[in-house]
Design a protein that fits this description.
Mean pLDDT of chain B: 90
Shape of chain A: globular
Low-confidence stretches of chain B: none
Order of helices and strands of chain B: HHEHEEHHEHEEEHEHEHHHHHHH
Largest interface: A-B, 28 and 27 residues
Shape of chain B: elongated
Mean pLDDT of chain A: 91
Largest sheet of chain B: 9 strands, mixed
Number of strands of chain B: 9
Number of strands of chain A: 10
Radius of gyration of chain A: 17 Å
Strand order of the largest sheet of chain B: 5-6-4-7-3-2-8-1-9
Oligomer: heterodimer
Low-confidence stretches of chain A: none
Number of helices of chain B: 15
Strand order of the largest sheet of chain A: 6-7-8-3-9-10
């Protein structure tokens, strides 16, 4: 049996909006196995992105515990959490979030500046990963000169260039057309099946969720149905 | 800090804005240099004053003449080593537009008492021998292209010749001084020619200022008191003061100009600081999502702080460097332009250093607010800027 890479216990997060308290996560428990491909679904406001942010160490819970890759995130200071993120997690966002003033290659190189790699090694790593996502011929283009699908592939290259265990994708196909979305999902599937990356993907799209092996439903901040989909990647 | 490339590219995100900010900074730093130099030029007279030299003038004002007989009395005061005399001539060359200072002096004593006025001994000797000779400053010679042997006609506005013709002075020497407060645009001519010419018209001249050189061991306060005491019952009472004090009184003729210039400089600094902070805040707003991305990638709050500080510092230092370069390279034309009001305009190393520090401080102040905001920004909030 695979080990749990993510263990969430009693996770609670409350926001105050307009003077009113809004409980986004309400004592959530969740385990995710290493090497899994998880789709996180649920209606708007169900806490999907909040959970993703907690697991990625971008936000801190009001109560509960998040242990990722054996590290209790609540016990880490801000700087230690940042260092942990750079080693352990790769993020893919709906809006791609590439730095607009840097080329695709420079964007992918950016996380490697936090490693001990030399300039040449960083460049080689970034070029290699951009080749994996099919952007060798566009690596010197800036985000504004790339299509949406190319931007998202560059963002995926940036997410995996440091070889993290966990890829967190927040609506990665939300801003893409059907063809580009298919390419991005293929890429995520490949990262999971060939490179054994654990993927947690927030999505509204049932077609995108079909690519995952496990679909986790959230409802009003609590865990709902969990669907295990054997051979999901092959069916896609 | 993520990388210098990111600092540079972020600054060029809005090239026109960056260019205008750098240009305003350059202008501000240039103005700081120029304004401070005007103030230091005014103050140079006090700073460069010789502590052993005293000046004596009428207690009713600089333009009231003292009798020639006073010189001998002053020389009898204990502690007085040497004296010399000056009289403001107040003439003009061709028209009043071409104004420069002219003094009747005693060549036997003046050049000895003012060693900062550098002139070859043979030229001093020539002034002694030549009745209507004069020695002129290097800048003055350059301005009018006057050479040794030339004749300078001057209209004696304050001291007209008895025949109402122009005074004519023959250039016998050219002096220069490295001391900024000693003007290089003055004409000195011999006392004897001045006195004899005026006496012929029945109007013997007086003395504008007596200068005293005290003995090395003299108690200056005591000498001043004794000199003033000599004339307390005279018809024409006198004020005796150290050269520094005399220069200070002379500066009061400028009124509040130094203060006024200081206020302008301060205003320029505040205006440019506000403009820089505004530029950096706009820049930070544009980069909010980038802050979220950098933090999500593992860059610390401190490195994000550094990114914004580096942007502000770079902007201000480039603007400051250009301003310093402009200030340095325009010294000569500015000096020529304002030489009447601010003789010896020359930017001191201290002013350059001050302007460089001002650029640095502007960078820190302009960067600190956006940098602190970026540092405090929560990653999820920053990412939401584009989501």
């Amino acid at each position: 049996m695979a080990t749990a890479i993510v263990q969430v216990r009693g996770l609670t997060k409350t926001y105050t909006r307009g003077g009113e308290k809004l409980t986004v996560l309400d004592g959530l428990d969740l385990d995710m196995e290493e090497g899994g491909f998880y789709a996180l679904m649920g209606p708007s406001g169900s806490g999907k992105t909040t959970l993703l942010n907690m697991v990625g160490g971008l936000d801190r819970p009001d109560a509960g515990e998040v242990v990722v890759a054996g590290e209790d995130l609540g016990a880490l200071s801000g700087a230690a959490l940042a260092a942990w993120r750079s080693r352990t997690v790769g993020f893919v966002f709906q809006g791609f979030n590439l730095i607009p003033v840097l080329s695709a290659l420079e964007n992918v190189e950016l996380p490697l500046k936090l490693t001990r790699l030399s300039r040449r090694e960083r460049r080689e790593h970034a070029e290699y990963v951009l080749g994996l996502v099919g952007l060798s011929d566009r690596m010197h283009h800036r985000p504004g000169q790339l299509s949406g699908g190319q931007e998202q592939r560059a963002a995926i290259a940036r997410a995996v260039v440091t070889d993290p265990k966990l890829i967190l994708a927040d609506e990665p196909t939300g801003d893409l057309d059907r063809v580009s979305a298919g390419q991005v999902l293929d890429l995520l599937g490949k990262l999971n099946s060939e490179l054994k990356k654990t993927i947690l993907m927030v999505t509204h799209d049932p077609h995108a969720a079909e690519r995952a092996r496990t679909i986790v439903h959230l409802d009003k901040g609590q865990l709902g149905r969990v669907e295990e989909k054997q051979g999901a990647l092959q069916r896609a | 800090m993520p990388s210098f490339k990111l600092v540079w590219r972020n600054l060029l995100r809005r090239p026109l804005r960056a260019l205008l900010t750098v240009a305003s900074l350059a202008i501000a730093i240039f103005l700081i240099c120029a304004l401070r130099t005007m103030i230091t030029t005014i103050a140079a007279g006090v700073e460069n004053a010789n502590p052993r030299r005293l000046d004596v003038m009428s207690s009713s004002g600089l333009f009231n003449e003292l009798p020639l007989s006073y010189q001998a009395k002053i020389e009898r005061v204990p502690g007085v080593e040497k004296t010399t005399k000056f009289q403001w001539f107040g003439g003009y060359f061709r028209s009043q537009k071409h104004f420069f200072a002219q003094f009747a002096i005693d060549p036997e004593t003046m050049f000895d008492m003012y060693p900062e006025c550098k002139v070859p001994p043979e030229q001093i000797e020539a002034l002694r021998r030549t009745r209507a000779g004069c020695i002129i400053g290097r800048s003055l010679a350059k301005k009018f292209d006057w050479k040794i042997g030339d004749t300078i006609p001057l209209i004696g506005a304050l001291h007209p010749r008895p025949d109402f013709k122009a005074w004519e002075f023959q250039v016998v020497g050219i002096y220069h001084s490295d001391v900024p407060s000693f003007d290089n645009r003055t004409l000195f001519f011999g006392w004897d020619y001045f006195e004899e010419t005026l006496k012929a018209g029945g109007v013997p001249p007086g003395v504008g200022v007596y200068a005293i050189r005290a003995t090395p061991d003299a108690n200056i306060e005591r000498v001043i008191a004794d000199v003033e005491d000599q004339f307390k019952d005279s018809e024409q009472r006198i004020d005796c003061a150290t050269e520094a004090e005399f220069q200070r009184q002379f500066q009061t003729m400028f009124g509040n100009i130094p203060l006024f210039l200081g206020w302008i400089g301060g205003g320029v600094l505040i205006a440019i600081l506000v403009a820089c902070i505004n530029t950096m805040l706009m820049s930070m707003r544009e980069q909010t999502a980038d802050v979220g991305v950098l933090k999500s990638l593992g860059f610390t709050d401190g490195s994000v702080f550094g990114l914004f500080m580096a942007q502000a510092m770079f902007l201000c230092l480039v603007g400051g460097a250009i301003g310093l370069l402009v200030a340095w390279s325009t010294q000569r034309p500015i000096a020529a332009l304002i030489e009447m009001m601010f003789p010896g305009y020359s930017i001191t190393p201290q002013t350059f250093a001050l302007a460089a520090v001002v650029s640095l401080v502007l960078g820190v102040l302009a960067g600190i607010l956006p940098a602190v905001r970026a540092r405090r920004l929560r990653c999820v909030e920053a990412l939401r800027a584009t989501d």
